[in-house]
Amino acid sequence: MSIATSLLLFALAAVAEIGGAWLVWQGVREDRGWVWIGAGVIALGLYGFVATLQPDANFGRILAAYGGVFVAGSLLWGMVADGFRPDRYDVTGALICLVGVAVIMYAPRATV
């Protein structure tokens, strides 16, 4: 699997998980009701499935790398969905996380 395909899977997982959490948030915190919460729960389940499509067989590695994608994606989601404006520390932190994703997932490893 190519790096581009892996990155696409991370993006899809981010949309499912962050979107699902946002839907639950809207349902509970903004009183939009059970339909929003239910849609969020379904999206969160889809996230779990999409994460399994990554080529690496190590659950810990995939979830650790996804954590960095989640940080950056959450800031982007907040900008688009809620009008959040990250400051330079938010942006710097997200960039550091994305560098971590690249190291964890795409650094050359010795084959055994």
Structural commentary:
There is one protein chain. This protein is mainly alpha-helical. Helices cover 79% and strands 0% of the residues. Helix 1 packs antiparallel against helix 2 (34-51) and helix 1 (3-29) crosses helix 3 (59-82). The chain is flat and about 55 Å long. The model has no long low-confidence stretch (mean pLDDT 95).
Order of helices and strands: HHHH
Query: What does the main sheet amount to?
Result: none
List low-confidence stretches.
none
**Class from secondary-structure proportions:** mainly alpha
Give the helix proportion (percent range).
Answer: over 70%
Percentage of residues in DSSP E strands: under 5%
Question: How many β-strands, per DSSP?
Answer: 0
Gyration radius (Cα, Å) is: 15 Å
Mean pLDDT: 95
Outline type: flat
Sequence-ordered SSE layout with sheet pairings:
Layout: H1 3-29, H2 34-51, H3 59-82, H4 88-106
Helix pairs in contact: 1-2, 1-3, 3-4
What keyword list fits this structure?
single chain, 112 residues, mainly alpha, 79% helix
In brief, what are we looking at here?
The protein is mainly α and 112 residues long. The protein has helices spanning 3-29, 34-51, 59-82, 88-106. The relative contact order is 0.13.
